[in-house]
Amino acid sequence: xxxxxxxxxxxxxxxxxxxxxxxxxxxxxxxxxxxxxxxxxxxxxxxxxxxxxxxxxxxxxxxxxxxxxxxxxxxxxxxxxxxxxxxxxxxxxxxxxxxxxxxxxxxxxxxxxxxxxxxxxxxxxxxxxxxxxxxxxxxxxxxxxxxxxxxxxxxxxxxxxxxxxxxxxxxxxxxxxxxxxxxxxxxxxxxxxxxxxxxxxxxxxxxxxxxxxxxxxxxxxxxxxxxxxxxxxxxxxxxxxxxxxxxxxxxxxxxxxxxxxxxxxxxxxxxxxxxxxxxxxxxxxxxxxxxxxxxxxxxxxxxxxxxxxxxxxxxxxxxxxxxxxxxxxxxxxxxxxxxxxxxxxxxxxxxxxxxxxxxxxxxxxxxxxxxxxxxxxxxxxxxxxxxxxxxxxxxxxxxxxxxxxxxxxxxxxxxxxxxxxxxxxxxxxxxxxxxx
Length: 436
Prior knowledge:
This protein is of the alpha+beta class and 436 residues long. It folds into three domains: 3-165, Beta-Lactamase (2-Layer Sandwich), CATH 3.30.450.20; 170-270, no CATH class; 329-435, Orthogonal Bundle (Arc Repressor Mutant, subunit A). It is built from 14 helices and 17 strands. It has helices at residues 13-19, 21-31, 82-87, 106-117, 166-172, 209-212, 268-316, 329-338, 341-351, 356-366, 371-381, 386-393, 397-411, 416-435; strands at residues 35-40, 54-55, 57-62, 75-79, 92-97, 100-101, 128-129, 133-134, 141-150, 156-165, 184-189, 194-195, 201-204, 218-222, 228-232, 237-246, 260-267. Strands 1, 3, 4, 5, 7, 8, 9 and 10 form an eight-stranded mixed β-sheet that branches. Helix 9 (341-351) crosses helix 14, helix 11 (371-381) crosses helix 13 and helix 12 (386-393) packs across helix 13. The N and C termini lie far apart (153 Å).
């Protein structure tokens, strides 16, 4: 018989369906889907009151939850003639029925209508993906991909396809994250910036099925950053996440206008909690760094203040002439200054009537100074200390010490106080000479 005569030969349907069992069974094993079916545009009992919506066919289900890694599929018959299961040692599903109810079956009606309206389109442009649905008389949520059955003469006599169960989707697309335990993926049809949660495939640690009981959609809005906000009015729940368009149909398809998106979502409260924990952690680290810094500064200050304290003790001692060096230029200069050698040498020179020969030799030796040494000498003559000279000439204290050593050697003196003594004596001689 021809396929166009199938509705007129209900007695032949069981034989036709049985002949396709092996192909259907092997295809289900190979495609790794959770179910495979075909529906014929005919019924075994055309006298029933709902015969126009009752269609014969075969629906095989793989009940192994982790189909991806399973080598032992558990195949059962969900729809079809009971003799098929008995003859092939396959059990019948607890929700088994012999025929399909296509009264509200977009996976059946839409592909066939598209094939009738677009007879020039190939099968690759006629397949159809349903949103998440539940078959009449069953409880499992599935997505179905179906394509019309067309013979060589162009006659449309049914549909065939496969399904993806919600469990298979969840096991295949688990979020790999340890930061947000309640993050989840969704695959859903997209209409005017809204998502109907009743039509969504979900994988992850958040149960969106509770929200799906409400008829309120998930509304999408753009935030100031790169993320999107997803708000559900029914449960007053918000999510943050990202989504991207998914092209389930090629260009020229009868269903190319349908929009789908894949998204990863995280409850807003989880993100806020994560940010709060991060801020607390950062503040804790900053406080710890401050405490460590204070302890370190106290330790370092004590270490560097020790030689200063030692220098102050030396200054308080009676005999500064034999005081040890503190290796701190400022303290050493202060000790030198407080040694009172200037006054002792000055008064001693006056009492002993220091000869003009030594003064002449000192004056002649000043001419041996280099320009740099001369600059340092002039500032010493004005009463500057080594530190003040370093600041005035913008030189390091070590450089000033080097110049000072050379000056002392060339002038045949041993200290700054002795230098000031000679300078003051020369000034007094000059003043006396000018008066005469």
